[in-house]
């Protein structure tokens, strides 16, 4: 279906801001078992640089949300407490580009091409205590490639990581109609 990526990306991120609130409200009480693992005892803030333009793209909403959720959860999981996550969305002449940056552990150079492989996790010891299977990014890659898009990462160990997604995008004509060419 066609989805306004601008609105949808904001909606996905709103859920992460809400989870943070829920976590803060739960702090002090001892019954936060119902919360997702990443939302417990981890502080973060999200900075948004998101175009105000409507960007209609053809995606499967559920699958796309799963991809962004995984990248966001990774950004939280592999960052120290209080990390800043930057979420960006912009358009080029025929693509939309979305990125999520963290100031976390980063990915060592020799692992950077492997993080999209099934079950691959950097440093088993480091990852084990975080929970997870190492499938999130492999699934993300499949979902994005089915849409004709690309996913990649830029990272520096000890500094942080930026995950990028680009999707083909055909802007509507100025007059809003794309049927009058024939
Ligand atoms: P799952 O997503 O299945 O719960 P996972 O998070 O370990 O488990 P992926 O999301 O596929 O699996 O990520 C693969 C590995 O890439 C992670 O185990 C981690 O080592 C590394 N990684 C992913 N995102 C980041 C990040 N933002 N910063 C540092 N390392 C990362
Ligand atoms: Mg993951």
TrEMBL record:
Residues 1-171 form the Histidine kinase domain. It is found in: Cell membrane. It comes from Lacticaseibacillus suilingensis. This is histidine kinase. The gene is walK.
